[in-house]
Amino acid sequence: MLDKLRGRRIEARLLYKDAEYQVRSPGDFVRCAVTGVEIDVTNLKYWSVERQEAYVDCAAAVKRHLELRDQAKDR
């Protein structure tokens, strides 16, 4: 609560599910797994259930998918 009063944003902890997410620890934002950008929880639209990661936009989600696909090919 003091963080809110001091103007600090709190990082949320979410469990990503199909078409929804469950709040594990309330907060203002989550961090994009690709860019590190803060995403307001109210604006969160892209995530991976399998990897339990959030993405700032569709381009970041696709980039992550392609990176992991290419890593799997190299194995």
What do these coordinates show?
By secondary structure, the chain is of the alpha+beta class. It has one domain. The protein is built from two helices and six strands. The strands form three sheets. Strands 1-2 form a two-stranded antiparallel sheet. Strands 3-4 form a two-stranded antiparallel ribbon. Strand 3 and strand 4 form a beta hairpin. The longest helix is centred in the last third of the chain and has 17 residues. The termini are far apart. 13% of the residues are buried. The model has no long low-confidence stretch (mean pLDDT 92).
Q: What is Rg? A: 14 Å
Mean pLDDT: 92
Spatial order of the strands in the main sheet? 1-2
Distance between the ends:
47 Å
- Could you give the order of the helices and strands? HEEEEEEH
Low-confidence stretches: none
Report the principal-axis shape: elongated
Task: Work out the helix count.
Answer: 2
Described by strand count, sense and barrel closure, the largest sheet is:
2 strands, antiparallel
Strand content: 25-35%
Structural class from helices and strands? Answer: alpha+beta
Report the helical percentage: 25-40%
Q: How many runs of DSSP E, i.e. beta strands?
A: 6
Give descriptors for this structure:
single chain, 75 residues, alpha+beta, two-stranded antiparallel sheet, 2 helices, elongated
